[in-house]
């Protein structure tokens, strides 16, 4: 369990991203450079230099992104900040969390890491999660901690907590008010 109000980084984030770069390098760059060398030695050298420069840049960027990414649990929200050139800061209140999903791709499985995605009420139909963090070695434990915090804020119906219900007179009063508003509008 991670301590409250303390920033921590997704430890395996750069490793996951660098493995992806390595796979991309092997699948795309090696055949491209080999084909260019076979076609012309000068063109092959230029292509090889460009591929190496791009790979070095991606490795640097992944490390810089890992250093910029940090996550923390507060008393009433989860916060995530990241960004190399464009800094972003997301804060999701526990009271708005509706679903927490974990996933683990093949590269993450090799590193024993995973991803955490948080969906919230009122996402306005946007695709994807409101908050997504990759490269977490303890992603399942973080999901449990996040769900515990969310349950503590707004309760869990399966935990047997009672919920407030409107009485018959409250419902009648509300219905009367709606009828008065309707009459005024007509």
Automatic annotation (TrEMBL):
Domain of life: Archaea
UniProt KW Protein transport keyword: no
Alphabetized UniProt keyword annotations: Membrane, Transmembrane, Transmembrane helix
Boundaries of every YdbS-like PH domain copy: 68-146
Membrane-spanning ranges: 20-39, 45-62
Protein name: PH domain-containing protein
Native source organism of the sequence: Halobacterium bonnevillei
């Amino acid at each position: 369990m991670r301590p409250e109000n303390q920033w921590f980084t997704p430890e395996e984030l750069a490793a996951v991203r660098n493995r992806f770069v390595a796979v991309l390098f092997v699948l795309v760059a090696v055949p491209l450079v080999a084909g260019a060398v076979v076609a012309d030695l000068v063109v092959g050298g230029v292509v090889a230099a460009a591929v190496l420069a791009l790979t070095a840049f991606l490795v640097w960027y992944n490390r810089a992104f890992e250093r910029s990414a940090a996550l923390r649990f507060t008393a009433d929200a989860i916060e995530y900040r990241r960004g190399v050139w464009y800094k972003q800061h997301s804060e999701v209140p526990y009271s708005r969390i509706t679903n927490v999903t974990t996933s683990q791709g093949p590269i993450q499985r090799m590193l024993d890491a995973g991803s955490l995605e948080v969906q919230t009420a009122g996402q306005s139909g946007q695709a994807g999660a409101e908050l997504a963090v990759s490269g977490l070695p303890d992603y399942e434990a973080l999901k449990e901690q996040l769900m515990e915090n969310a349950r503590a804020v707004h309760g869990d119906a399966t935990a047997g907590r009672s919920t407030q219900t409107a009485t018959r007179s409250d419902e009648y009063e509300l219905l009367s008010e709606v009828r008065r508003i309707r009459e005024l509008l007509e």
